[in-house]
Specification:
The protein has a seven-stranded mixed β-sheet, with helices on both faces. The protein has one domain (6-213). α3 (73-86) crosses α4. It has 221 residues and is α/β, with parallel strands linked by helices. The chain has helices spanning 9-31, 43-61, 73-86, 106-115, 150-159, 196-202, 208-213, and strands spanning 98-103, 120-121, 124-130, 142-145, 166-169, 181-186, 189-194. It contains seven helices and seven strands. The N and C termini lie far apart (61 Å).
Length: 221
Amino acid sequence: MRGTNDDNPDDNKKKEDSASHKRLIDLIPASFIDLADMSHMSGLWTRITIIFAFAVVELSFVGLIFASPVSDPALVKAGFLFNFAKFVEWPTARLGPITFCVIGDDTIAAYLESSVAGKNIGLRSVVVRNRPKSAELNTCSVIYFGRSEKNKAGTIATSLAGAQILTVSEFPELGPKGVAINFFLDQERLRFELHPDAVALAGLKVSSSLLVVARIPGDKR
């Protein structure tokens, strides 16, 4: 008796591959690629995996792999923001939740609120705050400055020097003014630039794994 397609090893392999691809596609918008869960891997394999994972996010921006809404740049930026926080060595003396504050971009704030609020980074819960008041900025862990707040970003970042707050924007020229991480487009791919001096000014340290996939000003890699 002739076996069915389900009994064919080649067909089963195709089904498994298809299911794996679907899981990967589903994983991106759901968890924004949880890159920090790789402590069990060797150093070299971790670096390779991180580079691949960030490359997948970049590809999703131009829709080469994933269809809308994953190709929405605001969603991709929200995913990066969440993962940036996982690669920061947060001071143990600073207790309470990891608070993402968004200034000047309601869309990114909405994506964070719907996708990551209530999750955990380590043992700390995640809170999202849109349009925080000036008096609340010291309670933020990560501050994202949207396009409408470009003129204020450098001043705010400088005023928060030493407060152990990670500042992020989409303007690389703000790095020398104290904004630690800045998004930019490279041939329609979303990438980010990290300014070690701005990170140090904030009183923070970031994992070397994040440095591997960032553009560092003056780095000849």
